[in-house]
Amino acid sequence: MYKIVEARSVGLNIKQFVIEAPRIARKQKPGQFLILRLHEKGERIPLTIKSSDPAAGTVTIVVQAVGKTTTLLNCFEAGESILDIVGPLGHPSEIQNYGTAVILAGSVGTAMALPTANALKQAGNHVIFIEGARSKEMVVFEDEVRQASHETYVMTDDGSYGEQGLVTMKLNGLIDAGRRLDFALAVGPVPMMRAVARITSPLSIKTMVSLNSIMVDGTGMCGGCRVLLGQQSKFACVDGPEFDASQVNFEVLMQRNTMYRDKECLSLKHFELHKREELEQIRAELAAKEQEMTRLRGELDEEEKHYV
Amino acid sequence: MSESKSLPTQTPNALPLKERMKILRTPMPERDAQARSRTFEEVNLGLPPADALTEASRCIECAKPGCVVQCPVGVKIKDVVALICAGDYLAAASKMREDNALPAITGRVCPQENQCEGGCVLGKKGAPVAIGNLERFIADYERESGQLGLPAIAASTGKSVAIVGSGPAGLSAAGDLIQKGHRVRVFEALHELGGVLVYGIPEFRLPKSIVKGEVDNLRRMGVEFETNVVVGKSVTIDELMRSEHFDAVFVATGAGLPVFLNVPGEHFNGVYSANEFLTRVNLMRAYQIEAYDEPVYDCRDRDVIVVGGGNTAMDAVRTARRLGARTATLVYRRSQAEMPARLEEVHHALAEGIQFRMLTNPVEFIGDEKGWLTGARCVRMELGEPDADGRRRPVAVAGSEHVLPANVVIIGVGTTANPLIQSTTPDLKTNKWNYIVANPESMRTSKPGVFAGGDIVTGGATVILAMGAGRKAAVSIHDYLTSGTWETA
């Protein structure tokens, strides 16, 4: 059981959680992710780690309610526990002093890109952060973004905050203005990452994208997260999650991500209809589990006393 | 007449040899093939005590029992069978446990025809003693009696062992090491304990409750378990030894990354590795789709093809059938005789309506414009000259291309080594396939204090071989912990 020590809303349907997970906190590096399972009947979903505090033994994740599991997770509050969390998984971001690094992040992708942006800044890069969101209430962590970068641009689709337009519009603007860009990282919806790759690849700007393919175990065992790089198949969980954007077949990624869309929709609809009952049931199950574990721990301690 | 009837229960050896050899092998009662092909309930129902007695009385007690020789862990089968004949099932079970910590599991999943039963002299003329069924019988009897004879635990040695992986190798090593008085902690990457026994082997062949029972026994003996730890990521081997002060580590991480065929179309929606398909259905309980959140592609009234001829492929194709597949077809590039799958599974599969397309190999997967799988383009094969491992090499027949309709294709043709531990433990020697190099007797690796066994050393093999490796490792680890010396082999 992994206790939530802090839960707060940071945007429309977006919540930040600080969770006790000491092993992950000790090892996490920017770009890595974890996999969690909320309850006994829950699915396993991967989420990028925003930050960790090894001393406190906590990790921070940011969750946008999209499907059933993320919607359910966002109902959780501080003091409650998550059944299973494993990590950190995947390779960390490759941090170098490239020169000028541009980060393009869409909405909740901002949380995922923040640790890498920070690391790039510390490594001596001039960091340009372009944050995009649908509208003002989905612009998240603006203060942290400003701290992690030398130049910050906020773009909204509807123009309700920052400048109106897509992140790629700003990217094109910088290129047209003759800015030299040595490195790019794009984290967000697949069409956004593809659009970035289409701009930077012809210009030979080294570009990494963090891929969100469907995963189960996260250790390379199932191969469900395979992505196509050129002609080569790679596993996002152990070979990624970051890949060279110029090699990624985004069409295949988008197609594979639709694999369970029907089921996801049904599942979410069902949950929304029965939210209260299901939440109550899950909370009761988790509380029972917590009690059981406390009891077991007590028994073990008793047994250990015998040996001493 | 009445005398001979009462004999087997009282004096195991009284029945004359000739009489024993007249008794026919007792069939395992099983669920009706039609009914079971739509449920995940266990196929085999287990022998009733009377049948177990009859079956045990068939043993002619060879002076040199071939069954014991052929058992990878050397279970004293002859003695076990004699105890069954004597009606002392609990004693039979504890005799079994001297060599095999997980009899309820191996009784269900061992390929007995190639091992103990393959060595049974009765098999030369008729059917061998059903050793696997007897093994399962005594293990189930013991569990259901609630009188489990947990072995004695030696006084604490003050030494501690980390075991990486809770599959058959890890669990059997844990059981042996805890008895020797060492502290034992098992690390598991997934959220549930049992490794391949829970994510791979389906409920209808090995119920989860059996695995849980064995894990609980180990827990009662004092073994500690920690789930959700990916050694190599969450913690390295060096950290386990230096920061967490384990005196020895046993790496038993099992089979690794799934092998794909590397043919065009493998990225279409509907193409799975057997590992993924089975993990979704078994570990994540996607077969109870209404109650559980993890999805699996709806196989109902669809055409499913499974590629491969081993136990994993067999498990996948029978699982697809149970999920409601209209057709569940096994495609294998050699002939049925070369299939590595357990014989009983082949029989069960055929009875359940699985179609076998032998000497067939996919060369391309075909999909629609939205990326959904529609079929597999296959070629017919014929067997040519024997290859390195002695099996005749399949060769494609020119002009034999044909398309089999398929909405789901599941690839079960094997695995390669998972690199997570090797890549974070630089002084751990690996072979050219990236499996960990370990001495076959001592299970010692190139790194002092670190042992390895099971599929991560041998490549994909069987549950019993992994268990054997775990037990060997336990002996060797105990030697190392008590002697404190590490001579490099």
List keywords for this structure.
heterodimer, A: 308 residues, alpha/beta, 7-stranded antiparallel beta sheet, 7-stranded mixed beta sheet, 10 helices, 36% helix, B: 489 residues, 5-stranded parallel beta sheet, 18 helices, 33% helix, disordered N terminus
What topology emerges from the helices and strands here?
The complex is a heterodimer of chains A (308) and B (489).
Chain A: E1 2-11, E2 14-20, H1 22-27, E3 33-37, E4 44-53, E5 58-64, H2 68-73, E6 81-82, E7 84-89, E8 100-106, H3 109-122, E9 126-133, H4 142-148, E10 151-156, E11 163-164, H5 167-176, E12 183-187, H6 190-200, E13 206-210, E14 226-229, E15 232-235, H7 236-239, E16 242-244, H8 250-257, H9 261-273, H10 275-307
Parallel strand pairs in A: 8-9, 8-12, 9-10, 10-11, 12-13
Antiparallel strand pairs in A: 1-2, 1-6, 2-5, 3-4, 3-7, 4-5, 13-16, 14-15
Helix pairs in contact in A: 3-4, 5-6
Chain B: H1 2-10, H2 17-22, H3 33-36, H4 49-56, H5 66-70, H6 77-85, H7 89-97, H8 103-109, H9 131-145, E1 160-164, H10 168-179, E2 183-187, H11 196-199, H12 208-220, E3 224-226, H13 237-242, E4 248-251, E5 257-258, E6 271-273, H14 274-283, E7 303-307, H15 311-322, E8 327-331, H16 343-351, E9 355-357, E10 360-367, E11 373-386, E12 392-396, E13 402-405, E14 408-411, E15 415-416, E16 450-452, H17 455-458, H18 463-483
Parallel strand pairs in B: 1-2, 1-4, 2-3, 4-16, 6-14, 7-8, 7-14, 8-9
Antiparallel strand pairs in B: 5-15, 10-11, 11-12, 11-13
